[in-house]
Each structure stands twice: as structure tokens, then as C-alpha cells.
Design a protein that fits this description.
This protein is an all-beta fold. The protein contains no helices and 11 strands. Strand 7 and strand 8 form a beta hairpin.
Length: 120
């Protein structure tokens, strides 16, 4: 049974940084992708970033390119999302998800979410 557990959310001022972590357990598939989605109040869930387990290829939404960096530590079964130059539009619940590929980065399971609030 796949489990994804996020951590690292919180309150940060505009221009600040946060680093989210997602620990995966119970995963038996050899090839997969793990990524981050977010949902702001009153809006739908959107894909933010994703990383492939096989070759480390990455995907970023245009809204976060150049500000967010996704990385992985396979030894720790952990995927990170470093978020820099945060602004109010980044405020959302951030979810970790796993899926079959870089552009299909969900379908295998979701984490419970972690709140990121950008406010002065």
C-alpha cells in the first residue's frame, strides 16, 4: 500500500523560501514519477512539478519555473520541493502524488497535503 507523507509547509513572507518533503513508502513499482500539486482556495488542483524515478527528468509548471526546484533522494525515498521567491499566488495546500510518468504524475496515490501560506 503506497503511502505519501508531506511536511515542510508553513507561513512565509513574500520573497521568502520553503522546502517541502514527501516521503514515500510501500512502493513496489520500478518506474514511476512523484510530484507536487497544489490547490488554492476556490480553485482547482494544478500540477506544480514532477520528477521521474528512472532518469530524474523533471517537469515544472510555467508559474513556478525558475523559482521552484524538485529533487529526490532515492536512498531516503524522499522527494523535495524547494520553493524560492514565494508570492501570495503560491498560497495553497500542496499535495504530493505518484503516477506512471512525468506528465501523468498522479494516479497511484496522494498525500494528505501541507498548507503553504505566503503573507506579510
Amino acid at each position: 500500500q503506497l503511502q505519501l507523507v508531506e511536511s515542510g509547509g508553513g507561513l512565509v513572507q513574500p520573497g521568502g523560501s520553503l522546502k517541502l518533503s514527501c516521503i514515500a513508502s510501500g512502493f513496489t513499482r520500478k518506474y514511476y514519477a512523484i510530484g507536487w500539486f497544489r490547490q488554492a482556495p476556490g480553485k482547482g488542483r494544478e500540477g506544480v512539478s514532477c520528477i521521474s524515478s528512472s532518469d530524474g527528468d523533471t517537469y515544472y509548471a510555467n508559474s513556478v519555473k525558475g523559482r521552484f526546484t524538485i529533487s529526490r533522494d532515492n536512498a531516503k525515498n524522499t522527494v523535495y520541493l524547494q520553493m524560492n521567491r514565494l508570492n501570495a499566488e503560491d498560497t495553497a495546500v500542496y499535495y504530493c502524488a505518484a503516477g506512471p510518468g512525468l506528465y501523468f504524475c498522479s494516479g497511484y496515490g496522494w498525500g494528505q497535503g501541507t498548507q503553504v501560506t505566503v503573507s506579510s
